[in-house]
Design goal:
Layout lengths: L17 H10 L3 E6 L9 E4 L1 H7 L3 H5 L3 H5 L6 H10 L6 E8 L5 E12 L5 E10 L1 H45 L2 H31 L8 E4 H16 L4 E6 L5 E4 L1 H18 L5 E11 L13 E10 L6 H5 L18 H11 L3 E7 L3 E9 L23 E5 L3 H13 L3 E5 L2 H10 L6 E4 L4 H13 L4 E6 L14 E5 L4 H12 L22
Parallel strand pairs: 7-9, 13-14, 13-15, 15-16, 16-17
Antiparallel strand pairs: 1-2, 1-5, 3-4, 4-5, 6-8, 9-10, 10-12, 11-12
Length: about 550
Amino acid sequence: MPVSKKTARPRAAARPSDRLLAAALATLGEGVIIADGRWQRGGFRILFVNTSICTMTGWSSIELRRRRVHGFLHKDNRHLAELRRWRSKAVPGRTFTGEGYLTRCDGTLLYTTWTFSLVSDSRGRTSHVAITYRDMTAKRSLQEALMHSQRLEAVNRLAGGVAHDFNNLLSVINGYCEILGSKPAARREAAREIGEIHRAGLQAAGLVRQLLAFSHRQTMAPKIISLNQLVRDNAGIFAKLLGPGKSIALALDATTDHVLVDPSQLQQVLLNLTLNARDALSPGGGVTISSANRKIGSQFNSRLGDIPPGRYLQLCVQDNGRGMDEETQAHLFEPFFTTKEQGQGTGLGLAMVYGVVQQSGGYINVRSSPGVGSTFEILLPEVSEPADPRPASLEPLPTTRGRETILIAEADPVVCKMVAGILTADGYKVLASASPAKALQLARRHKKPVDLLIGNLNQPDETKLARALYAAHPGLRVLATDSVPGPSFAWLPVGAQASLAKPYALSVLLHTVRALLDGQSPVRKTSRAIVKPRRTSPA
């Protein structure tokens, strides 16, 4: 008879021990709380907590087990009534989820998402509540930063559009000031008044450039300037920004003070640093703006990121305010970082300061101690060339005695009329229209070729007009005029194109037109180029 084999029974899986389950809960990355399932005043009584919830909140396990979940940890009671209703009607498998702030032991807030789940005993009755918390603080900060940047982008577009319209108005104001200033009779009767209007127009144009810089539509326009003079010129504005009860002092000790910077951007840097100091000052406090010559030797350039050897201008903005701790200084120049209350600051001011200094080939450091004050130190490369001439007072407009045909495509009727008038008075044959389509019709009806096209060429219709004219007249010259110079045209010879950013001086317009028509290849963008240094972290 065959020997019967004993059928092997499947081995039952080992049930995890309570100690193993507790160890697994303790090591989870999410915060876990197990509470008594009975609702008590203030929430559920805490029975067990894992290591993560203690790390997240800063409370010890003993401190947490003495408390109620909702009344102790949760910042507000908005969800308390809803949680209580859920407990009275909930069945196993139905969870209660939400999100909000928890209170840490030091009073700071932690943003989390949470899930409440029922735990049943062997009889199917609810005995406990298991609660998990996930720290969402970093993710929420990123989301808020994204929303903030989207709002800023909308403001940027608005700022760019407003700046464009203002530049048209300023072109007219400044242009007609030049026209009046060139008339001997007007100069005798109202020379001072015309000059004041023109100076105000130039200042307004500078403000518009700052608006364009904020909207990231303004390229750097560096000039060689006197650093000390720029500080002196703006000291009155800085004093007004500080307000009553707070003083400003200048200690400009630099003997050679020429630097290559965009003066409007550097002015904005000083404005931001002054505002930053103002917010840190107590009544009776003060700010000192100083300059000095610095020479960095090769012995200080031994590591990557050190400042290259050379001669620098040191510009310091020092205050005796409340100062900053090391943690604040570590994040000071990061975009969206701010120590101000919500809604009181964008966190972009010092980030802009850092960016402008870097683009200018400079370096910025900060020294600060709580209760002592802060010093922002900027180092800018010193240049030996003489300073560029400052804007001069009104002079008579030049006479170029042109005879060529010029087509103007300008949407703003007042700007169009002014430019057409000054060019006609100078001898040119001028065709003008507000739309590219009508401008092309004028050009085709005109018996002679168009020698020069002037207009805003950043839009597709204007570009199409320029290409059509160039196809018909290969000798065409193009002068692009807009608030921001656009890119050059690859299909047009370099010497046949130039650009002027609004608001431009009529004298500059006349000289540029003549140079283009004479084939003298005027520079398309007159600003000097700045070589960007390697990016280093601020000290």
